[in-house]
Amino acid sequence: MKALRFALRSFGREIRSGEVLVLLGAVALAVAALTAVGFLTDRIGKAVARQANEVLAADLRLRSQEPIPETWHEKAGEYGLETADTSTFPSVVFAGDLSALATIKAVSDNYPLRGNVRIADALFGEQREVETIPARGETWADGALLARVNADIGDKLTVGSLELEVTAVLTYRPDQSMGFASLAPSLLMNIDDITASGLISEGSRVRYALLVAGDEQSVNDFDAAIQPELPDAVRSSNREESSERAYRAADRAQRFLSLTAIIALLLSAVAVAMSARRFAHRRMDTVALMKSLGATQRFVISVSIVQLVMLGVLGVVIGSLVGYAAEEILTMVLADLIASDLPPVGPMPIVLACGSAMVLLVGFALPSLIQLRNTPPLRVLRHDAMPPSPSRILVAGTALAAVAALLYQSVGDAQMLLILLGGIIVIAASLYAVGRGLVAMMGRFRSGVGVAWRYGLANVARRGRDSAVQVVAFGLGLTVLLLLTIVRTDLLDGWRQTLDENAPNHFMINIQPHERDSVSDIYRSAGIQPPEYMPLVRARMTTINDVSVKEREYPDPGGEWMANREHNLSFTARLSSSNEVIAGEWWSEDYSGPPLVSVEEEAAMETGLVIGDRLRFLVAGREIEAEIASIRKVNWDSFQPNFFIVFSPGALDDMPTTYIASLRLEKEQQPVLVRLVRTHPSISVIDLDSILQQIRGIVQKASLAVQAVFIFTLAAGIAVLFAAVQSTIDERRFESAMLRALGARKRIVFSGVMAEFAALGTAAGILASAGASVLAAIVAIELFELPYEFNPWLWVTGVGAGIFVVCASGFVAARGAVNAAPVDVLRTA
To answer: What's the number of domains the chain is made of?
Structure first.
């Protein structure tokens, strides 16, 4: 109790005197950075995830071959979730004497729960979003369907025994399929019209779906609760399982945001460590006086821990308020740039920031404060009496444990944690080693330079370990700032480049062999370069190395599905530009030997396939066997026609074949599609513009988030540099006072201090540039699967920033030390 009362009184005095303001500022800045980053990444991360959920038209989808039980709706209602129903099935649609096969999508009032349906008033006309569904007796039909039956808006379509009026052209629905299996164009109708149509009866091929949406936790709780009740035939899908491209973009966005949070956390940790070291040093005189008056080690450590907790609480309050205000301002600034409203702030960033502040203090400040208990009472009489240094293993162990715990809690990504933590340790060790080497070399360069440089270099050499520690602090701060700069520019640019602005935005499917020439002529007549046609052959895999695919054991659960699914095969002599052979060899263009196949990398891993394995397929009642000649890596983001399995030329020549093609059409060129679908009604045209816009929207949100977070991490980096300078400010104040008392001019003393910081900044800038380059390459290749190109300007920027930022921080922090009156400094020394 005595320790608590004393801690409260002395903490108030130290706050008023400014003794703990540096450490308090570091903690508050750490919390502000974490909460601002946490709030922003949490909200934008939820927005990104919600946008990815649009490919399901919901947050969760339950699909079944049987009607959805009413109890599922009731259970979803118990969790406060919105629901909608869909029924999907193929049917022939009639318009007068003409007919066409269509995919009928019957939907309930709330459809879609995520995303929006888009319609137009004419074929390939201007699209607009709607928040309703077709009224009873009405329908919205795909333009390709209208073209096949020669119908237009206002005409009647017969669906089963029901006549529906076409009131709009359906151009996009969030859950539309991109697979080649869904060749039939869509027709959207009201689910209340299903009974009157007479289309669904016992034995009908209908896919029923329950769509569910709400807050993330409630959706997850509902999913976990209903899973035990689901029959084996019911499939539950979330965004990870729904759209590979959209989820990959969303997942990559989350990784970018996680990386920025990690960087802010690392900078905050370094700032707290440097500030705590100075705080402990400033308290040594007070502790020595307390012990000379009878205070025990237990009393000293109790007071220190109580003050540490109070410091953490105060820092959390101040930092959380600043972080929340900064995030709100930033959200308003970005409001016009972000297409959709951001979800509300969740409580987790505040909880995480509070816990992080305490862990940071324990991991980085407590070892320095524990050292205080060993302060000798003799220090009251002899200022050079110092307590023994704490164990390096203890200091490093607590710091690493704290960082590892915080990083894993923040991002939950073990791979990113290990790479960055390992990289930071290696860079810190390299910086310290070079710093020690620099210290040893400084004495050799003092001759032949001016007085200021001679004094500055002497300071570096004389401080020895302190100079090396400062190089580590400066270098780490610069490393993470440079790394974030690379992420903000080079990596994001590389990501945008994977979504080429000139990527194909239309797919043509079900092109018959005899139609290729006439399709090309239509495009040529419109001044458009015809596309390249890729053959497509439908088949089923029957055996792998003479073992039935149904009996084979697979290394991955997805392998069984991959082997037993209906495959879309192709054959070609040339390797596509969006494919890269990573194992084996691609066949020559004039190859005419036994059938060979090339398998996509992930498909090979899931099914356990290797070079030399023999695959047998059943194609239109005929069997064909081929040997695996190569494994390919496929860039699915290219929106080019790509296949899991590709045959060598000639292997499938006499098999039933259709063709697919992709091409890019600008808005003014799209009327040519009306002529195409009217003259070739069997060809299906898939408009990818909406899907491309969806993925680019995810990229845009992630880009804005990373750029915005850069502001906060930059502030945290400056705090690190300022704390590093402040750690030796008392010594600098005394030295400056002594030199000026002996006749040195203020300008010479100040120039010497700047020369010292310039030398430290140069060393830190060189090593930070090297470290950031290596870390950026690892992050780009291993985490984001993006190409990395060396940027020589990074080194120029790194060294220049090292000199400028370190000197600027030194100027701000050390100006008071140089300007202090010598008599005042010497009197209190």
So the answer is: 3
